[in-house]
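Sorry to interrupt, but I need a hand with the structure work. I would like you to pick a protein and set down its sequence and fold. Please put the record directly below this note.
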Amino acid sequence: MPRIREKLWIWGQEAGCHTAAEWGVPEPSRMTPAEGAFYMGIPNVIIVGYGGKPAPPFHQYALPLHPMKNLVWSVVGAGGVTDATERAEVLKLADELPNMTGVMMDDFFHDEPGPKGYGALTLDELRDLRTQLTVDGRTLDLWVVLYDRQLRLPLGDYLALCDKVTLWFWRAAELEHLEQSLESLEALAPSCGKVLGCYMYDYGEKRPMPLDLLEHECQTGLRWLRQGRIEAMIFLATCICDLDLEAVEWARRWIAKVADEAL
């Protein structure tokens, strides 16, 4: 019987990439993605590029991630940064990592349409990417980030090309609308697997995450997991796990408490 732990993921980014100057977090972090996963007791890792790091080739960076149960790597990085050469390097990496099960598109959608529509890639480019996701005899899942505020946008055609959509609430105060937001996502993307993104820092307000709101999100996510409405939960991010943040330590204790319960 599956356990809750198997449905938990951690968002992995370069140690120290979230700075005090940009986000107001304590610094510097020295925790790597593999260390963060071990510290939090989470077996599944998503590696997302941030500010050009990690830079290809990824072989050496990926070595500590071989023991992870499942691994997803970004083909669109933080800020919606996308590069065809880097995407090719990620797909090459999948050849040597049998635990790599998908690719992530971070900050993919724009709040207003741009030259490529609402996405960092056009619909045709997204379709082309899907044709490249069969690697070493297996097909990688295509994951995408969607913010609560973007649920009002006409994104159905994009989401129909994705396998997993991850729902995030940029400002902690928006977590009061969890139930309504999931209902909206279920209507917008009926064919996608749903994943709940859990920030352990309120990046939208550049301040620590209120514990009552984090607890509300985690308990709601656990209920949704048991109901089958979502497939997984993601905790963000490894690069703040060693900064003595109260929310990180609360999440770590909560994971330890529930992770071995049967789903």
Q: What stands out?
A: The chain has one domain: 4-258. The mean pLDDT is 97. Residues 4-258 form a domain with the TIM Barrel fold (CATH 3.20.20.80).
